[in-house]
Design brief:
The protein is an all-alpha fold and 330 residues long. It has a two-stranded antiparallel ribbon with strand order 1-2. The two termini are 62 Å apart.
Length: 330
């Protein structure tokens, strides 16, 4: 590597394949870390004990160094004792450290790991969401950091004059950000949008409850909202086209229905009311569902009584009952 050129931009840093997202930044960081290193082909690398360059490292020298440091610190601060803050009573244990690390890993993995993968969502949509949560999408501010765009060309595609970052495009843009409000209005809930991507994901997926069915459906809608926003951003940027907010909301409703039907999801009351009340169609909103069933029973009982009073047969009443309570599985 020394003969090819160790300096920044030298042939030693050439790659045999095209770099992935983020790898160019990693190479730049590596160059900065190795900037102060001097390679000498005729010198063998070896460790030097700086506290005793003549005799090198010895156990006695290390002990003397530690005791001197302890005495020096004790002069100023007295006796210093380490405290394991995660378990002050029992102190540090290997078991406690393991439990702490596994809890942290689970907490971080909840958002960026398994939760972005959904069995009812196309794989490309989940990959887009994973890149979004790790800030690996080619937004204009990310392209600026990689040296692809200039400082004068990093504004939002909507022309609002704000730098195009992930939080701005997906959650705080004056146009794209309102899609989440329309989606919550469609579901009959109201919340404020958090600033960070992970907080938005966690809040939106638990906005109607934390049960498995509700979280799964809200996760599908969040992934779909991200997909619709990113496609509309690219459509405006590269095709010079534009869709209204009503068109984007319609895409969310249509695609969510298609994805659920493609996976043979059972609609308790059919899919006719999907445009006005999706939770009722899926049987998630149980209070409204019970009210709807009670209203159907009363209404069908009235029709049955009217039909029999007018001389209609009992079969007519059963036909009316069948029309109202037919369960559709798609």
């Amino acid at each position: 590597m020394f003969s090819l050129g160790w300096e920044e931009g030298g042939a030693a840093w050439g790659c045999r394949r095209r770099l992935w997202d983020g790898e160019e930044e990693m190479i730049g960081e590596c160059c900065q870390l190795l900037d102060n290193f001097v390679l000498q082909t005729d010198v063998v690398d070896m460790w030097h004990w700086l506290h005793d360059v003549v005799r090198g490292y010895t156990v006695r020298g290390a002990y003397c160094l530690l005791t001197r440091l302890e005495h020096r610190i004790g002069d100023v601060r007295g006796d210093l004792v380490w405290h394991w803050l995660h378990d002050v009573v029992r102190g540090y244990t290997v078991r406690g450290a393991y439990c702490l690390l596994t809890r942290l890993e689970h907490r971080i993995g909840d958002v960026r790991g398994d939760l972005v993968w959904h069995s009812h969502v196309p794989l490309k949509v989940s990959i887009l969401a994973w890149r979004l949560l790790w800030d690996r999408l080619p937004t204009k501010n990310n392209l600026l950091r990689r040296g692809i765009l200039q400082q004068t060309n990093i504004q939002c595609a909507m022309g609002c004059g704000v730098e195009e970052t992930v939080p701005h495009v997906f959650f705080h843009c004056s146009f794209f950000g309102t899609l989440w409000q329309h989606m919550r209005q469609w579901l009959g809930v109201s919340r404020a949008d958090p600033y960070t991507t992970q907080d938005h994901f966690l809040q939106f997926t638990n906005v109607i409850g934390s049960s498995r069915t509700r979280t799964s459906f809200m996760k599908l809608l969040w992934l779909l909202g991200v997909w619709v926003i990113w496609n509309e951003r690219n459509h405006r940027l590269f095709n010079n086209g534009q869709n209204s907010m009503l068109d984007l909301v319609k895409k969310v409703k249509c695609n969510s229905l298609w994805w659920l039907k493609a996976n043979n999801v059972s609609f308790v009351l059919g899919s006719q009311r999907w445009w006005s009340d999706p939770l009722l169609c899926l049987g998630i909103d149980w209070p409204m569902f019970l009210f709807f069933v009670f209203w159907q029973l009363v209404f069908c009982g009235t029709l049955l009584s009217t039909s029999c009073a007018k001389g209609g047969s009992v079969a007519d009443g059963y036909i009316i009952h069948f029309l109202f309570f037919k369960k559709k599985t798609v």
